[in-house]
From TrEMBL:
Top-level division of the source organism's lineage: Bacteria
Source species of the chain: Candidatus Hydrogenisulfobacillus filiaventi
Protein name: Galactose-1-phosphate uridylyltransferase
Amino acid sequence: MPIQWRKSSGTLTFLDPTRNWEPTARVTEIRHDPLTGLRARILDYPAHFPPPPDFRPAAEESAGWCPFCPERVTTVTPRFLAAVTGEGRLVRGPAILFPNLFPYDENSAVGVFSGDHYMPLNAITAGWVQPGLELAQDYARVLAQAYPGRTRHFTFNWNFLPTAGASLVHPHFQIIAGEEPTNRHADLLEASRGYYREHGRVFWEELAEEERAAGERWLGETGPVAWVAAFAPQGLLEVWGITDSGRYEELSAAALGGLADGISRLASAFAEEGYSGFNLTIFSGVTEEDRRSFRVQLRMVPRLLLSAAGTSDMNYFHTLHGEAITMLRPEEVAARLRPRFSPAPAEGGPA
């Protein structure tokens, strides 16, 4: 049975004061995620966004006390127990990882990509991102050795700049890996397992194949990572990067490089589109069954302010109804992003 792409629509007709009270019809389209059924609403609404805020003054103000800058990071951040690493912290090139002072779970870590205190969105390169992705994999493997037999719902998470919820402008990411998954992680794992049990096929492989063949939301590939615009986006737009492995600790170097490459291309595109930050999560499989049924996947959603008054792009629909709204059709988004995934790297992207 092929993947189901479910959508419906409703129309509101009203007397429009901007058109001399003529009847005007606006259509709202409701889409369902093809695996989980999670809804998203696409509004018939003109999208006009203000210029992104300038974070350079905040960066200059915080440079003197930022805990993630090189002159302070080893003296003011926590250290791991010796059971995790005798070195206290994990290091990979310019990237460094340490326990989260305010943890979200029993295994909760913060990683700093580099000593760069402020990184503009369009300056993010694959080479700058990749050590952080590799360091996260080091942590996943260390946890497996330090706590054998423990369930770890591993995710890599990144709020880039305050628009996306970052408390500091210094770029950093967070790892959570506890026995209890987040709601979204649990839904993805269970639905993937269920699809595999029912159909004997991996949903994520079928999704990539169908999206590549249809072309509407297909962006391209970076090594073994397939990139698509989500059919039912959970933000103004949402991009997925689908790998070829079930668990993060088993990703190949080529897959980590492909993820870093795609992040760089998307960051550059988001900057060009006028966004001022993004949220990013990489979900990992957990069990032996997930090696067969799940594929490690990256999800990236740009963030912005909707008005000069600082209106958030999230409201009661997102926070209380658990449903996303957008004014951007995924197919139109894909058409704009697709050139970034041509074989040649995007300008300002990875070298």
